[in-house]
Design the sequence.
């Protein structure tokens, strides 16, 4: 049986990222994967290189997420980072 643990809220996620970025990486991915995939699908459509570009977007997110200042805006921040990286 698979037990699903809820994702931490944005403030807790940022605390975890700042404390131990490597251990928090799966949580960051879970938080932003739907956002990044939606933006990538909208901007790139069925582009065969979309998966490679999505990897680059996550590289940007992982490098910058610890610097988010306003946890309540983390999802919109993720959309902006994704869109900028996709451009």
Sequence:
């Amino acid at each position: 049986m698979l037990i699903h643990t809820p994702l931490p809220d944005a403030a807790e996620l940022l605390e975890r990222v700042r404390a131990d970025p490597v251990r928090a990486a799966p949580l960051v991915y879970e938080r932003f994967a739907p956002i990044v995939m939606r933006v990538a699908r909208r901007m790139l459509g069925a582009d065969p290189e979309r998966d490679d570009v999505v990897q680059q977007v996550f590289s940007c997110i992982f490098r910058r997420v610890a610097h988010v200042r306003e946890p309540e805006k983390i999802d919109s921040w993720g959309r902006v980072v994704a869109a900028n990286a996709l451009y």
Observations:
- The helical segments are 10-19, 21-44, 50-64, 74-86.
- The chain has a mean pLDDT of 88.
